[in-house]
Design goal:
The complex is a heterodimer of chains A (317) and B (245). Chain A has helices at residues 16-28, 67-80, 92-105, 212-221, 229-233, 264-270, 299-315, and strands spanning 3-7, 9-10, 13-14, 36-41, 57-62, 85-89, 108-113, 118-120, 122-129, 134-140, 145-149, 164-169, 176-182, 197-201, 224-227, 254-258, 275-280, 293-296. Chain A has 2 domains: 3-169, Rossmann fold; 185-315, TPP-binding domain (Rossmann fold), CATH 3.40.50. By secondary structure, chain A is of the alpha/beta class. Chain A contains 7 helices and 18 strands. Chain A is elongated. The model of chain A has no long low-confidence stretch (mean pLDDT 94). Chain B has one domain (2-218): HUPs (Rossmann fold, 3-Layer(aba) Sandwich). By secondary structure, chain B is α/β, with parallel strands linked by helices. In chain B, the strands form 4 sheets. Chain B has a 7-stranded parallel sheet, with helices on both faces. Chain B has a 3-stranded antiparallel sheet with strand order 10-11-12, with no helix packed on it. A two-stranded antiparallel sheet of chain B has the order 2-5. Chain B has 6 helices and 16 strands. The chains are: A alpha/beta (317), B alpha/beta (245). Chains A and B meet through α2, α3, β7, β9 and β10 of A and α3, α4, β9, β11 and β12 of B. β13 (176-182) of chain A pairs antiparallel with β12 of chain B. The structure holds flavin-adenine dinucleotide and adenosine monophosphate (AMP). Residues 202-204, 228-231, 244-247, 259-261, 263, 265-266, 269, 279-282, 285, 298-300 of chain A line the site of flavin-adenine dinucleotide.
């Protein structure tokens, strides 16, 4: 199955979600990576990190692009190389490009894949539905397929190798223009959707002035910070930290929830986490039912002990 | 300004999730609501634009007769007209085809959707519509303003806020921040009874995908409790047992 992977570029490097999409495509083609071509737009450094995940061929398209001009270029690559499968990440860019390509090329689109696809007559793949409370197995009706892969569900698999990069160019499109990125906090730590570890605080933290233990634990663990919705609504924490049904959905390896009750709408955004730790002073808090490790106690007594243990752990690493 | 808002029907956020057979969601005892992104953000922002600029807001759904209370609710919140396209919601492609067909013959200046349904979490219907209509599209906008016949949009990303400019007409999917939820008042509910709710025949769109089966996620094996005075041992457990640090 001739496959094209769209990999998003951030400051010259493939995004983590983009590398996950590439790893996914490689795993689908175990033994036949030659069938896979990656495409990455804009200026890149070296091979943008593609060789390391096993991509052996990639096209770098220069110039300023939006999702419409990326679609135009991808569609011409699909035609030119007789592509039958396009893999993208299920992120902002993927959600703009994948549906367009599906329509333009007459492919079936399956969005948000969480597990490896099986290929036969078309593609069959599992995806989360009902905000992670159930799983659906979805089959494409066409042999041509566009797949988007849910970030943080498959992981980046570094298998090593080198990637031959060919240069290409394409015309832009300015119907939609990115005019500015405001409040760019690019270097201010790990972006929440990409984090492997997340430390999150709820209303039980009592006020914004009490967030330092959350931040300190996050720092020791190399984690991003998050919060429940009321916490961002009252302005204790910035909106982009709000996780849950109406905020962002995350799927880290480790989610540590402190002073969060575990309402169903909160769980909807975090229940894909591999391991969940809940710290709550109320033994009846519903979150314990979704947890792997639980500590019943006052956050302000429990957190300092964990931070101290994390410091010792880091010192002995 | 003529605005189309696409609204979908989803189980209430607290509804229990069960399946009556491998491919059918068990609707027994479930209350349905307008998908929160469609209602709180897309619909309310459309109403705000209409209130300042004039025009009409049409709330449209693809689905069966059980959609009517949902569309009436949108009318009660303030939409001027309701439309039900009488077709099954077989998949994103079929829904997008039906909506695009309707939009094509009704000339809208702006088409607003939610960023995803909380039921299927697909997030692709509006993108498909945009392509079928040949329109620009921005996914997941948290702010939408109109300036000199241009649309200025913001989107929250992990590292900041992206600002986009686009020409009209366009398709936008709405995320948190675009507007504030409005609770319908008695006058709105009364008025909704007499507002038009048109029934549009299906264009016969076929699905491009099929759900073969639903399943429940594997159950957690249980929560290991750590005494509060030994909280520090969590770090060792996470390292040696869970292997996540
Ligand atoms: C349609 C809809 C959508 C929603 N979407 C979201 C969403 O996306 N994300 C979200 O988070 N919520 C969402 N909510 C809100 C959700 O229902 C809950 O109200 C919210 O998650 C509760 O936040 P919380 O756990 O921080 O606060 P609370 O429910 O007030 O819980 C605080 C917890 O802290 C504990 N606590 C108090 N003091 C301490 C202490 N000293 N040490 C340890 N523990 C302590 C308490 O025992 C309690 O369990 C939504 C609601 C609706 C209706
Ligand atoms: N049956 C439907 N009728 C009208 N609009 C819909 C329907 N299904 C989805 N939509 C719109 O498309 C958006 C994204 O849906 P989805 O791609 O299914 O996650 C929703 O938030 C709605 O605005």
């Amino acid at each position: 199955m001739k496959t094209l992977v769209f990999v998003e570029n951030h400051n010259g490097k493939a995004t983590k979600a983009g590398l996950e999409a590439a790893s996914y495509a490689i795993a689908m083609h175990a033994g036949n990576p030659a069938d896979i071509t990656a495409v990455i737009f804009g200026e890149i450094q070296g091979d943008a990190g593609l060789g390391e995940v096993g991509v052996s061929n990639a096209i770098n398209v220069t110039g300023q692009h939006n999702s419409q001009s990326i679609t135009d270029k991808i569609q011409s690559l699909v035609d030119q190389h007789n592509i039958q499968l396009l893999v993208c990440s299920h992120d902002n860019a993927g959600k703009e490009i994948a549906p367009r390509i599906a329509i333009r090329s007459g492919a079936s689109l399956i969005s948000g894949a969480t597990q490896m696809a099986s290929v036969g007559n078309g593609v069959v793949v599992k995806r989360n539905v009902f905000s992670g409370k159930a799983i659906a197995e979805v089959a494409s009706k066409n042999n041509k397929v566009v797949l988007t892969v849910l970030p943080n569900s498959f992981g980046v698999k570094k298998i090593g190798g080198s990637c031959a990069m060919s240069a290409d160019s394409a015309a832009g499109n300015d119907q939609v223009k990115l005019v500015e990125v405001k409040g760019n906090h690019d270097d201010a730590g790990i972006p929440l959707p990409e984090a492997d570890i997340v430390v999150s605080g709820g209303r039980g933290m009592k006020g914004p002035e009490h967030w330092s233990p959350i931040e300190e634990l996050a720092k020791e663990l190399g984690a991003a910070t998050a919060c429940s919705r009321p916490v961002s609504d009252i302005g204790w924490r910035p909106h982009h930290e709000h996780v849950g049904q109406t905020g962002i959905a995350i799927r880290p390896n480790l989610y540590i929830a402190v002073g969060i009750s575990g309402a169903i709408q909160h769980l909807a955004g975090v229940n894909g986490s591999k391991v969940i730790v809940v710290i709550n002073k109320d033994a009846e808090a519903p979150f314990f039912k979704a947890a792997d490790y639980g500590i019943v106690g006052d956050a302000f007594e429990v957190l300092p002990q964990i931070i101290a243990a994390a410091k010792t752990f880091n010192a002995n690493k | 300004m003529k605005i189309l808002v696409c609204i979908s029907k989803v189980p209430d956020t607290t509804a229990k999730i069960a399946f009556s057979n491998p491919t059918t969601y068990d609707e027994n005892g479930v209350t349905f609501i307008i998908n929160p992104y469609d209602e709180w953000y897309a619909l309310v922002r459309a109403l705000e634009l209409k209130e300042t600029l004039g025009g009409t807001v049409v709330a449209a759904s693809v689905g069966g007769a059980d959609y009517e209370p949902i569309i009436r609710k949108a009318l009660a919140i303030g939409a001027d007209e309701g439309v039900r396209i009488d077709a099954p919601e077989s998949d994103a492609f079929a829904v997008a085809t039906e909506l695009a067909q309707y939009a094509k013959v009704n000339d809208f200046d702006l088409i607003l959707c939610g960023k995803e349904t909380i039921q299927y979490n697909g997030g692709v219907v509006p993108g498909m519509m945009a392509e079928m209509l040949g329109l620009p599209y921005v996914f997941g906008a948290s702010k939408l303003e109109l300036k000199d016949n241009k649309v200025v949009l913001e989107r929250e990303i992990a590292t900041g806020i992206e600002v986009f400019e686009s020409s009209l007409p366009m398709v936008v999917s709405a995320a948190k921040g675009m507007a504030e939820q409005r609770i319908p008042n008695m006058r709105g509910i009364m008025a909704a009874r007499t507002k038009p709710l048109a029934l549009v025949p299906s264009c016969g769109a076929a699905a491009a995908t099929a759900v073969q089966q639903f399943e429940m996620p594997p159950a957690k094996s249980g929560c290991k409790m750590i005494p509060a005075d030994q909280a520090g041992s969590l770090i060792q457990l996470l390292h040696e047992e869970a292997k996540v640090i």
